[in-house]
Amino acid sequence: MNIVILGAAESGVGAALLAHAKGHTVFVSDKSPIQPRYKEKLTAAGIEFEENQHTEARILQADEVVKSPGIPEKAPIVQALRAQNTPIISEIELAGRYTKAKCICITGTNGKTTTTLLTYHLLKEAGLKVGLAGNVGYSLAEQVIDDQHDYYVVELSSFQLDDTHDFQPWVSVLLNITPDHLDRYDYSMEKYAESKLRIMRRQDSNGYFIYNADDENIQRNFKGAFRPVRQLPFSLHHRPDFHLAGYYEEESLVRLDLLPGFYSETEEISTANSPLIGKHNRQNILAAVLCARVAGVGKEQIESALATFRNADHRLQPVGEINGATFINDSKATNVEAAWYALDGITKPIIWIAGGTDKGNDYTSLLPLAQERVKALICLGADNEKLRTAFTGVVPYLVETQSMTDAVERAATLARPGDVVLLSPACASFDLFKNYEDRGRQFAAAVQEMV
């Protein structure tokens, strides 16, 4: 088969290597420059590629096209392929054809990475042969070439799900659906929700669908009665309207009931030793615990592994302590909702560092939490006017800065023992920083300078 790969980053190159390994004719095309490490992989495998262009005549000869998730549907080359009915699939769809491993696939607007990394950690610590793949930065297709694992834990964005057709996860997880990337879905929440729900579309009675019963958009769009998959809803509370597979009996005690076939009685698992902060992370933990339990990981193994988990950087990550105040890096919080989760999850008095490139933010939902918990707001951005307007009179003290070092120094001066200095910007980073990682690293470095 003549397979063309559009996009030559992690997923595209992984797909190219797998297709080549399975004997297909492969051509890779990227409209942008290809990173040297990916060029080396393609060259070493003898795979033909082009960069900085799409040669339409060559691409339109494809029997099948694997499209990288970052390429939008409206791209001219994609439209040309659609016009002649060339099948377009995702890297995940291709990988699914060639693995016998059980895939635990996780999606949702928020919390995907944390839940994926935690699920992987719980299975790995229990001694299972497990791979980590997908939106966390590792190609599933490339790992499937050798296929050394019994399980893969795969983070899937809506973009990665859009071109799946027959891919069948063993366990699918849907954490939440909130407005995001709507420009790719005709500004329709219903279309975005449909994209997320593709994760379980091909599952049958051998599979499990773990989902957040507290999420209104999931409830609105998931027609559970018509699905053969085994459904395992979870909640932060005991709910009489659901037969819940998992819920919190107490703040750090979950009760599981996975239905007949697992064990005869309900089971309690303590999450007290988890370092993760906040209500949203309690949902992420519960989803990961359910995944691990379905995979046969025992209660004691789960409780032990929860304590040793270290989340990805820049996600509510403690980076130091100065004079009894804890400094937390949540630079990944680039939108209002993510900042809400952080403010909601920290119960101690907060010195809040926020600001950056505004994406049309509406700060209304943050006002009650700010009024209740924030002692001071340090605005860190090239233009802080919108933040100033929203929070003047809401927080007792407000200060402006355009420097991370200055922001940390001012925060340290304002903080008292027991306080939390929280970098949770609610904005993109591109006014003063290269990206959110750069912003988070500068925050951590500035804290360490003062420790």
UniProtKB/TrEMBL annotation:
Binding residue positions for ATP: G108, T109, N110, G111, K112, T113, T114
Keywords: ATP-binding, Cell cycle, Cell division, Cell shape, Cell wall biogenesis/degradation, Cytoplasm, Ligase, Nucleotide-binding, Peptidoglycan synthesis
UniProt subcellular location: Cytoplasm
EC number: 6.3.2.9
Pathway(s) this gene product operates in, as recorded in its UniProt entry: Cell wall biogenesis; peptidoglycan biosynthesis
Single annotated GO MF: UDP-N-acetylmuramoylalanine-D-glutamate ligase activity
Coarse class of the protein's main subcellular location: cytoplasm
Residue ranges of every copy of the Mur ligase C-terminal domain listed in the record: 314-427
Catalytic activity: UDP-N-acetyl-alpha-D-muramoyl-L-alanine + D-glutamate + ATP = UDP-N-acetyl-alpha-D-muramoyl-L-alanyl-D-glutamate + ADP + phosphate + H(+)
Transmembrane segments: none
Domain (Mur ligase central): residue spans on this chain: 106-292
PANTHER family assigned: UDP-N-ACETYLMURAMOYLALANINE--D-GLUTAMATE LIGASE (PTHR43692:SF1)
Function statement: Cell wall formation. Catalyzes the addition of glutamate to the nucleotide precursor UDP-N-acetylmuramoyl-L-alanine (UMA).
Family: Belongs to the MurCDEF family.
Identification of the protein by name: UDP-N-acetylmuramoylalanine--D-glutamate ligase
